[in-house]
């Protein structure tokens, strides 16, 4: 087979380093990244939502756009949905439509933050009746997941308080535990509950699931099929996310990711656009855990999902670029010389160990990824291929520019 430009010298160099390139390529081909339905619609900040020409207006158009991302990247066969934003009457029909496009429905995300009654919380709300309805909504999502043949529920709560004294921390914790137990009992046997944490926003004094520790505590109490979801934008500045990832993997509790990048808060920028080194270090932990028999099962079941909103950029291109950045981080992590790393670590060679990581990170893996794509029957550069396809212009003509009103796609 003909190879892409730059691949041969890179392959030679990596092979000389003892890297099994066939294995690396097989892993890159097998990686799957889920894209979110809400990343294809208009979105914005509380200041303004800028309408994008051709942005998807409903779940059918979102699936069509996601299918295009899959067509050009080859690694995005599933699409996360958010309920009620993506709710339809005919789930079978939606599944069939998705299948015709070559994609499937992935994680089902309940929405426990947009009803008026959630002002004081959902699963932690002081009023038992509001909590009951919140649990009911998650049960509805579990049923939807069954209908669309999905085995993942991603649960994020906006619950928290804005002022000291507003509510009782421990009482809220107990309410949360009770509701989560009810939800867990309603899960079908193959379905996992991924608990997502976030340290602030929309609550500004405390959130009830602020960090991985509390999410882990809840997941641990529930049982094996409850795990933690790490959204990369949900930590205080300076948090060592790769360390969190390693700890959760070691405890068998890392369930999935919401990838995005940020400079300041939960900015939902394109993953890898601000801090690609951090992404590489996260993948370094995932690859190391996948190669360790003790943690391999957990690592292999991690759900890679993107959670971004694209405010001013073209949405499909943003998604393709995000996928390419994730692949880049993964490829670099796969070529880390692990034997040499372990040696240096054992010998206390601080900078040698660091250099091993740096060497992988500084390697230009673009020819390797291009080669992988060509071997998968794809164009070597998905972004260029997408631009050439004329799809963006076609949907802009057909769908027009919708008047965009509020910050969230389903609002
Ligand atoms: C909250 O900020 C969050 O990360 C959750 O995953 C939500 O479901 C999603 O964003 C909504 O955009
Ligand atoms: Mn998220």
Give structural notes.
The protein is of the alpha/beta class and about 400 residues long. The protein has two domains: about 1-20 and about 340-385, no CATH class; about 30-335, Divalent-metal-dependent TIM barrel enzymes (TIM Barrel, Alpha-Beta Barrel). The protein has helices spanning about 5-15, 20-30, 60-75, 90-100, 130-145, 170-185, 210-220, 240-250, 275-290, 295-300, 315-335, 340-345, 350-360, 365-375, 380-390, 390-400; strands at about 35, 80-85, 105-110, 150-155, 160, 190-195, 205, 225-230, 255-260, 305. The strands form three sheets. Strands 4-6-8-9-10 form a five-stranded parallel β-sheet. Strands 1-2-3 form a three-stranded parallel β-sheet. The protein has a two-stranded antiparallel ribbon with strand order 5-7. Helix 3 (about 60-75) packs parallel to helix 4 (about 90-100). The protein is globular, with a radius of gyration of 22 Å. Bound molecules: alpha-D-psicofuranose (PSV) and manganese (II) ion. Alpha-D-psicofuranose binds near residues 198 and 258.
Task: Describe how the helices and strands are arranged.
Layout: H1 7-16, H2 21-30, E1 35-36, H3 59-73, E2 78-83, H4 91-101, E3 104-110, H5 128-147, E4 152-156, E5 160-161, H6 169-185, E6 192-196, E7 206-207, H7 212-222, E8 226-231, H8 241-250, E9 254-259, H9 276-290, H10 296-300, E10 303-306, H11 315-334, H12 338-346, H13 350-362, H14 366-375, H15 382-389, H16 391-399
Parallel strand pairs: 1-2, 2-3, 4-6, 6-8, 8-9, 9-10
Antiparallel strand pairs: 5-7
This protein binds alpha-D-psicofuranose and manganese (II) ion.
Alpha-D-psicofuranose binds next to loops.
